[in-house]
Specification:
Largest sheet: none
Helix content: 40-55%
Number of strands: 0
Structural class: mainly alpha
Number of helices: 10
Shape: elongated
Length: 229
């Protein structure tokens, strides 16, 4: 009987190899970027040989696309599928992003990061990132429609733009921008709703002024874990 082939450090190759490869890709792609991560390093962290890696993935392009699919297969189901929140509350919950520790840089949204690194719009990862972002905007529009928005597609696109902007600004400044984005989102949502009394305490159409977000190194900064999007 043929013995199972073993990878580095004597670990058996089997059904767990694919998961180890994907786990290593999430760790390395997020920490140092896609282009700076080579297959040799990835295989070493996953404890598989390159032969095994290419048995599971045709190449790095396919691996990058699958890496992105793993982040949010349910299109933020933890937000949009909640039954304990009203549609308006679900829209605002999309901006409740957990924060990194004060000594950690906030990882950029993996879909944005992938398209920044990969300049080819036909690349599988670029195509998946584009599909995902369009799907998020559609899900926001669907929820806006449930809330009674006069133009749900427009509101969905506005909120999607706010989410992406907050993600990028948080990463660049290493300071939370989502609270400010959430305050702006509340005004946009209430302005778009029919016969809904505004609860923000601001005049209709007025964007509230928000203080500068605290630095990650401020004593008031909260600790939590990084979010993918």
């Amino acid at each position: 009987m043929t013995k199972p082939e073993k990878g580095p450090q004597g670990r058996r190759r089997g059904r767990g190899a694919r998961e180890r490869i994907l786990s290593a890709s999430q760790q390395l792609f997020r920490a140092q970027g896609i282009n700076r991560t080579g297959m040799d390093q990835l295989c070493a962290v996953a404890q598989v040989s390159k032969r095994t890696a290419y048995q599971h993935f045709a190449g790095k392009d396919e691996l990058v696309a699958e890496y992105l699919r793993r982040f949010d297969p349910g299109l933020m189901a933890a937000v949009f599928d909640r039954t304990d929140l009203t549609p308006r509350e679900r829209l605002l919950a999309a901006f409740e992003m957990p924060m990194s520790g004060p000594d950690e840089l906030t990882p950029l949204c993996p879909y944005i990061a992938a398209t920044v690194e990969i300049h080819d719009p036909q690349h599988p990862a670029s195509e998946y990132a584009r599909e995902y972002k369009l799907a998020i905007a559609a899900r926001l529009a669907e929820t806006a429609r449930e809330a009674g928005a006069t133009d749900p597609e427009r509101l969905g696109e506005q909120l999607a733009l706010l989410l992406d902007g907050a993600s990028a600004r948080t990463r660049v400044l290493n300071a939370e921008s989502f609270p400010t984005a959430a305050a702006i989102a509340a005004v946009l949502i209430d302005n778009a709703l029919e016969n809904v009394k505004a609860t923000t305490g601001t005049t209709k159409g007025e964007i509230p002024s928000c203080p500068a977000p605290p630095s990650r190194h401020s004593p008031t900064a909260r600790r939590s874990s990084p979010s993918p999007d």
